[in-house]
Amino acid sequence: MGANMARRLRDQQETIVAVYDKHHATAADLATELGCEAAESPARVAAVAGIVFTVVPDDAAMHRIFSPTSTESLLRHSERRLFVNCATLSPAVHVEIESLVTQHGGRSLEACMAGSITQARHGTLYLMCGGHQDVFESAKPLLEKLSAHLRFIGSAGEAAKVKALVNMVMNCNTAALAEGLGLGAALGLDLTMLREIFAQTGAASRVLETDGEDMQNRSHDCYFSAAHAAKDSGIALMLAKTADLTVPLAQAAYDQYLRLVALGKGELDKSAVSELTFKDRSSQ
């Protein structure tokens, strides 16, 4: 996601001065493509850039790049910097990062993304933002170059709550679609016909549009991984526990994605959850 966001911003005449990835070869290839520096550490990115976008896989990675004690941390050069944090994380982590950045003289905005790597490349992401309103307004012209829809939700952590619910519902829809198509296959129905009827009735969904054909054809090239689906559903379940609310469908979808990860298929697209529901597929 981060690489395609950088490409998009470059195409929009923004200057990319440095990129970082924990896999240095990945950063080096992207830096060559963009004509910028492949930074050796997050700290180096903050040293040379006034605005820093972060896209990390989970809470632990976010804590590493914003560590108050590490010499490689973004906080080493956070004064007068703006950090735009785009990953789906626990809401409390976004609150914590905003506090740390503020203490070190910088500004922080969560800009939680809904969309695929293709949408990141084309600047059609859905961005849900949380933090201080004035910080959002200052970042808005840049964020508009990355998004088709841009929403300010509220204070730090609030956008992360919304994003967790977006992905919770998406993951439930994906698991339900996999079961519907799997059962259709077991009943001997033509799946192309079934998908067409789903699309024209109450079974229609955005997931049907993006994942239905892939489930039918066992084409699971990754746009949003099963591992990330499990992680994000886990965040939603944590929020439900905090709110003392039982969400059995979300729990069932989470369990399915955990099964997929346990089978070593976590890096496949979330559509691969269908591998668990079709009778003739080896993952069952």
Summarize the structure.
Helices cover 52% and strands 12% of the residues. The protein is α/β, with parallel strands linked by helices and 284 residues long.
Produce the secondary structure layout:
Layout: H1 2-11, E1 18-19, H2 24-34, E2 37-38, H3 42-48, E3 51-54, H4 59-65, E4 82-85, H5 91-103, E5 107-114, H6 117-122, E6 125-130, H7 133-143, E7 147-154, H8 158-186, H9 191-199, H10 206-217, H11 226-242, H12 248-262
Parallel strand pairs: 1-2, 3-4, 4-5, 6-7
Antiparallel strand pairs: 5-6
Helix pairs in contact: 8-10, 8-11, 8-12, 9-10, 11-12
Characterize the structure shown:
The chain has helices at 2-11, 24-34, 42-48, 59-65, 91-103, 117-122, 133-143, 158-186, 191-199, 206-217, 226-242, 248-262; strands at residues 18-19, 37-38, 51-54, 82-85, 107-114, 125-130, 147-154. It has twelve helices and seven strands. It folds into two domains: 2-156, Rossmann fold (3-Layer(aba) Sandwich), CATH 3.40.50; 161-276, N-(1-d-carboxylethyl)-l-norvaline Dehydrogenase, domain 2 (Orthogonal Bundle), CATH 1.10.1040. Helix 8 crosses helix 11 (226-242) and helix 9 (191-199) packs antiparallel against helix 10 (206-217). The chain has 284 residues and is an alpha/beta fold. The longest helix has 29 residues, at 158-186.
